[in-house]
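Following up on my earlier thread - several people asked me to post the actual chain instead of describing it. Fair enough. Here it is, all 507 residues.
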Amino acid sequence: MKKILFAALALLAASCNNPEADTQSLETSPTTLDFEATGSTPQTVQVKAQNVAWEHAVSADAKAWMTVTQDGNTLSVSVSDNYMGEKRIGQIRIRPTDGSKLPARSVTVTQQANPAPPELSLSVNPASLTFQGEGAAPQQVTVTASAELLSWTAAPDQESASWITATTAGDRITVTVADNPDTRLRAGNILVIPSEEAAAPKTLLVIQEGKILPPALTVTPAGPIELPYNGLNGNLYLLLNVEAQNTEWTAKAVDAEDKALDWASTTVSTSEGYINLSFARNTQKQPRSGFVVVTPSAEELEEIRIPLTQTAAPDHLSTLAGDLDIASLGLDHGYSALMPYAPYDTLQPTIQWELNLLSEGLTVNPNFGTFEGSGHQLHFLPVTDRMEANDDNLYPLADGVYDVVATKPFPENPEEIYHKDAWTIDKGTEGTSWSTKYSNFWYLEYRDNEIVGSAPIISGTVTVTKTAGFENTYSIEFDLLDDFGNRITGTYAGSIGLNVNGTRLPD
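Reply from S.P.:
Thanks for posting it. Predicted structure:
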């Protein structure tokens, strides 16, 4: 044991007496290397390292043309031929790896420019490829290098690598593509990279068409279509949506014998994908039917026949074919009739007027109370508050809004006095006799003393405004519906003569 302890102490003493044991150094020889442009043999660098571990690395800009291998403390440096007309310079860094504070060392490597640089280039033929969307066969391109020393690699770019495959063999690139899952065209690139910087890289454009969908045609609504006699929400048309895929199409409205309907027609917009089905109001009391036929151009598709039915018109008396504007009637004069109550007659709280508005060419026969000529008439019976006879013969029609209502029924109690409500107008009804055929509220058209058109008014409002400063002059606004759903709207402005108890009062 004493011998071992003595030996350790001897070694420690020897170390303390040897200053080189603690000295660190790192040097290279030589610090520069110079290579010819071509045909250069490898050169060596000696690394002198004392008490320090080290490693080497080639600068990033020189890795493409410089190779360094290590054998102990010797680095063997080789370079590839330089075909460029410019010299190139790189660095070899030798640095400590054990935490030493010694600075790194550098060896500068210079390779001379090529005095006669060859023209290096690549060509790709064809420069682009186009593939069908599905089941596309592989295609090839030829890559030509301007010199034998020039090699190349090829691969799809990052964005295209999921669907493009490039395989190289000799001077050929074989390109395959996966099926395109989308109907839209897509494009990608294959990058052809030369081995020498003097040659520019090339890009091969790869185009793939979209997936081709089979022809298809759908129409919405697809089932039977039922049209109301008077239109949909006031409209006499219906839009059908068409989705077409890889086919053109046409549309028509026909009967069971494929003849064009006389009450419905179609206009189409193939670009927007719709059919506008226009139809006439059904004035008949029986339904009518047909088909909307949509015919595709693709032979593998069958035509689409959509049954079409329009409901029958309800029972109605109106002969109007559509809405009516009061202004179009030319109403320019009128007369009213009133039978005011005697002061002692106190039972009735309301009174009924008779108003007739007439167009030019239509007059009243005073002997028979009939209308003669050709023109238009608006006949109605507004109810106002009670009016009594007065010496001044002043009987203005009260301003306000009058509602068109059903005739008020008679009370069940026979002792109860029947009266109509103020601010109402009884709706038009048809009586059984000549004198009552057009009762209450009607629009009538005459031609040569004969009624050729008519419409009972069954709902709406009449707004009366007396013209200030004028007797028997009014503005009357109409917003009405007949029994067939036609709107009758507009304003009459003018005088209305007044007959009281059968006597015409002066205007």
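The chain has four domains: 23-111, 122-208, 216-310, 324-504. That should answer part of your original question.
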